Amino acid sequence: MSKNTLLRPVFLFMLTLNMLKMNAQQNTIAHPSLSAPQQSIVIIAALTATGDLDGLKKELHVGLDAGLSVNEIKEILVQLYAYCGFPRSLNAINSFKAVLDERKAKGIQDTIGKEIVVTDTKDKYEQGRKVLETLTKTAQPKPAPGFGAFAPRIDAFLKEHLFADIFASDVLDYQQRELTTIAALSAMSGVAPQLQSHLAMGKNTGLSTAQLIQVAELIGQHISVSQANVLRKLLEQPLLPLTQPDMMVRIAEIEIVPEHLEEYNAILREEAAASMIKEPGVIAIFPMYQRENANQVRIVEIYASKAAYQSHLTTPHFQHYKTSTLKMVKALKLVEMESVDKERMSQIFEKL
């Protein structure tokens, strides 16, 4: 038997192994997971869009620690004003300034990053139109058909300001900017048509379906399952159930010491509002009192899961409520409940 004959199986094995490695690498390139900085971009954008400043401050720390530069985060928050308005963008920017001051006081030196430079051009409409053509890979007539012909000023603002002025800074690349936009629109209700358009643009920048599904997962964790399902539907993915098998429903029956009633109600209102705003896992905290006896308080509590309830118990707003009202509560009974029709639970408050 010749030496070549003996080596042929070895050669074929090595060739097959290399091809498998190449395919694995190609699959990794085509469908990578979101990196830690990309995940922070998603969460920062979503929390800014919904106005959750407490959650945003925590994620700004995470984003900086994950490698986002100061100027990258500035650009994210500036860009978002075009999608969620000046008030929320400005609130987020002020929160970011406070986070940086806090980190500086602790001796943390954050990376400033690439300088924000914007070069003015004479024809900003044309500049923005070309950027939009790059993102959509589609010819962009002037004015834009439909809304552009109907309201030329909004078409000019879109091209000249958003896709020219804002996009002119290369501190963020187009993929990062589309990831920012997709996250913000996914967190907001009533903007599915715009989200669908930006999903196409995001894919044109290289975002994979797998990455966009991961965006939906992050929206579900930090905003709500219902908003995550808006994105999942556009991605033609199965919708997530709005209720979990271990969902908790209870009624808290509380008797308040009469002289503390006004103070207790004020603390309860604050805690209930904070829980609903800040905790995706809190579906409802609905305080009530008996008409014939205002000292008898009843609270309907619905938590997405037992884990959501355990997380709720550790929050600063619940701890403040618990410690502040101990002397005010004369009697407390927690009644665990079970839903008769879980499929209809999502419709409970729709008519309000």
Q: Strand percentage, roughly?
A: 5-15%
Which quaternary structure do these chains form? single chain
Give the CA-based shape: elongated
CATH domain class name of the largest domain: Mainly Alpha
Global structural class: alpha+beta
- Strand segment tally: 4
Which percent range fits the helix content?
A: 55-70%
Strand order of the largest sheet: 2-3-1-4
**What average pLDDT do the residues reach?**
90
Whole-number count of domains: 2
Q: Please trace the helix and strand order, writing H or E for each element.
A: HHHHHHHHHHHHHEHEEHHE
In the CATH hierarchy, what is the superfamily of the largest domain?
AhpD-like
Radius of gyration, CA atoms, in whole angstroms: 26 Å
| Total count of helical runs of at least 4 residues | 16
Describe it for me?
The chain is of the alpha+beta class. It folds into two domains: 36-117 and 169-234, Up-down Bundle (AhpD-like), CATH 1.20.1290.10; 248-347, Alpha-Beta Plaits (2-Layer Sandwich), CATH 3.30.70. The protein has helices at residues 3-30, 36-50, 53-66, 70-79, 81-84, 86-105, 124-136, 147-150, 152-166, 174-187, 192-204, 209-222, 225-234, 261-278, 306-313, 316-324, and strands at 248-256, 282-290, 293-303, 329-337. Strands 2-3-1-4 form a four-stranded antiparallel sheet. Helix 2 crosses helix 12, helix 4 (70-79) runs antiparallel to helix 6 (86-105) and helix 7 (124-136) packs across helix 9. The chain is elongated. The termini are far apart.
